[in-house]
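This part of the workshop introduces the protein records we will be handling. A record pairs a protein's sequence with a compact description of its fold. Comparing a sequence with its tokens is the quickest way to learn the format. The record below serves as our worked example for the rest of this section:
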Amino acid sequence: MRNQKLKDLREQLKSSSRIFLAGKKVMQIALGRSPADEAKTGLHKLSKFLQGDTGLFFTNLPRDDVERLFREFEEHDFARTGSIATETVELKEGPLEQFTHEMEPFLRKQGLPVRLNKGAVELVADHIVCEEGKPISPEAAQTLRLLGMQMATFRLYLVCRWSSDDFETYKEGLAQLRAGWHIYAANMLHLLSNGVGGGAGVAEQGRQCLADALRHARRPSGLPGPRPLLRRCRPPQLGAHLRIHGALRHGRHHALWAHNMAFGRRLLPFVGRPAPALAQDYMLTQALLPSTLHLRSYGEVETAAVAPLYPSASMVFFQWAFAGVTVGLVAGAVLGRMSVKAWMAFVPLWTTLSYTHLGRRLLFHWGVMDYSGGYVVHLAAGVSGYTAAYWVGPRRKEEAGGGNLVVMVAGAGILWMGWTGFNGGDPFSANTDSSVAVLNTHICALTSILAWICCDVAVRGRPSVVGAVQGMITGLVCITPAAGLVQGWAALLMGVASETLPCYTMNAAMSLKVDDTLGILHTHAVSGVLGGVLTGVFATCSFRGLIYGVRAGGVQVLKQVAAALFVAAWNVVATSIILVVVRAFVPLRMTEEELLAGDIAIHGEQAYTNFSSGTNCSLSHETIEVGNS
């Protein structure tokens, strides 16, 4: 099926005909399933053929014109995963002159044995892309598209014809209808028998759902900083409300319009078309990220759009977790004083103008390496949170006390578990990149924890649980942009680096007047930039890291630095503009009376209540005011 080609045919015939494909069971009931309930004589014979990829064609055209139209209509297109190859395609050993050196990493991912030889892509051995009569794998489909070989033919066949006078069937159409089910079953059986390496849709879907679940485990816990629940943020329920409300509402906005703004079809050079991702036709089709389609200057496809082997619903849910976590991080910088109404106005504006921040496409097509969101999640949230903390102002001095270390450790464990899905799910398939990303994530986090503990022992004379949790989070953030792009030894070095710079900036910022409640700037923005720059240094030779080539690697490092500056500048400006506009209508900060009264004045309930005492928890505002006075 090719929806666009069918749409073109509908447009061509709209003056005389209509085509209906959806709701086959409803159409069967409407036409009649038996002679007793058929709408017109003989229609029940037609309704039984409404199954699979069939539909109804209503027309005023003469019979001969219709038969000629269907006989001559034929459109060629690139084959998709599971299609049957019409010929054997074999690439011979030697230079692949049709590909530039930038394509070498992508070709390697598609299973081609390639290398760079004096700046040219070279095939080191003969390679069979596909074999005639066998289903096409996901990698082969991508390679055939790059080679410009179209093996798919979109045609429409007449299965049967009904008129008020007679009813007849067409042998060719009936044969295609029956063969379609057999081919579909054979393709699915072939893909499943090949296992994960063959790109089985069932395996991919199960793996992606697991990654989704791990990532979404991070959201309700409200763990957006280096010391989750370590800082006593009064009113406590206000802090929880800001994090949970922001994460959930941001997720809703992501599904309504932001997903397609970030990953959909292009509207402007930096942004996609806002559109909902909720329709059934959209959710059940194969996932596709049009923003990843990269064209050469003369319009030829250089890198095809990413199309994982699972439905769009899984992709939306996966990216939804990114969206919820990011806004939860921003909330961590303004806990304990920002107005709920101001926050409710801030979230949808920040979703549109900052999270989708118009730079994702630019960074991707410019060649910036950000494996799992070190820039677009952690740097963006860290800078935006710090900027928001500046505009909202500091907490009351008496609210900056300690919290619950035991609960902090439990929350940190949930966070660490969720990061496995965070980085492991980003290749969009079960492949070597995913395995390397998960291993590197844990290597870097463990190393950063040990480095921070060693630093505590050297400076303070004893280890600190708080320092260990800080090290865990800075290590996880630092490896995020590099998880599947570096080797294990590089993850070790990045773990050591992720302890030093954030620790230094955190201590150096003590004298600043900006009250970043949970230190988002240091643990997320600083660690994210550090990880992004080190990605340009340590990325494997396929991705042109600095240590594998001074010239190409140096350019890559400069790109990483420039991208970090761009993302930081964009979020400072966008967040400032949003908060200034919101401030014109709603105060950004709660009043001192509300802060003093706490959760009872804001939510009408308390965070901690002694239920065993039988005390009534529903206190009025008047009671609180009397008590405070």
Summary: Confidence is low (pLDDT under 50) at residues 181-200, 220-232, 610-629.
